Each structure stands twice: as C-alpha cells, then as structure tokens.
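#lab-general

N.A. 3:47 PM
ok so I finally got the sequence cleaned up, no stray characters, all 195 residues accounted for. can someone with queue access submit it? mine expired

B.Y. 3:52 PM
send it over

N.A. 3:53 PM
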Amino acid sequence: MLANALDFLIRNLAEFFILVLLIRFYLQAGRVSFKHPVGQFVLALTNWIVLPVRRVVPPWRNLDTASLLLAWVCAFLMHLILLAITPWPFIFGSPLSIVALVLAAALELFKMSLYLLFAATIGQALMSWIAPYNPMMPVLEGITGPFLRPLRRMIPTVGGIDITPLILILIIQLLLGVVVASLEPYILQNVRIAT
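B.Y. 4:20 PM
back already:
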C-alpha cells in the first residue's frame, strides 16, 4: 500500500516537473515570449535549476539544451527510484540496466512531449472557434506550429475548415497507443534482476 502511494507521488511530481521543463524547451524553440503568464509560471518553477546548468550546458542554436537535459535527468531518476522501491532486487550497475534506464528516460521525454502537443493542439483548435484572439493562442501556436505547418502544406482545408489538428491528434494517439505503449514495458524489462 505504501509502495503504491510512493509510486503515485513520485511519478506525478516527476512527470509534472518534466512537463514544465519541456514546456520551457518548446516555448524557447518556438520563439514564444516568456512575458505571458504561462511563460512566467514556467520560468518561476525552473530558473533555480536551469540557469546554473546553462552555465555548463549552453544553448545549441535556438534550443534550450539545459532544460532538455534536466528533463531527461528527471525522467532517468524517476525510473530509477520507481524501480528501487519495488520488491524486486534490480541490479542497477549492469550495463544492460543502465542502457535500459537511459532509453526509458528518453522514451519518457517523447511520451510527455506527445501529451503536451496533444493538449496544445486540442486547446488551439477549441480556442480558434471560441476565442481566436485569446492571449494563449501565441503560446499554443508556438508549440503546435512546427507540426501543423507541414500537415497544412499537404492537406487542404475541407469546406473551409482546417482538419490538420484532427490529423495531428490521430498521429499522436497512434504514437502513444502503439509505439510508446509497446516500447515502454519492453525497455524496462531489460533492467537486470538479481538471481
């Protein structure tokens, strides 16, 4: 019972922090202003750790590599701790276990990025109908734009309606439901157990 509560707490806190770091990464990559309340919230939650790490890990082009690295480290530690609190005697020092944890952390970033893109796409689609001039629109467009623009070049509007958000949502669901759902348990099964 206690292990389940700890698992829930650790997973949710870690995933929240990973998500905030990824939002920071994608907002900077999309050149979205951090003057928006969402940007200010993200900076307030992450500056304490991103700014010191940025001195060691500088940005590459327009990408905030410090935020991305910290999100990966957080995902790595989350998986390490979650496996450590299980009753199974995992061998974390084996090369295969380390590789499995490295890949699990990378897959976690991919999964959380898909969740973020999914939420931003739905939010943008709804706001484009309800409140197209909402101050949140530039933030959402900064996240979804790099994915919707190529789709818009390939898929024409249908009856004057842009269906690319629907196509993007279907692609995200396919990736989450097939790729991530099958890879995640496979990767974690490769963490070695003492025999």
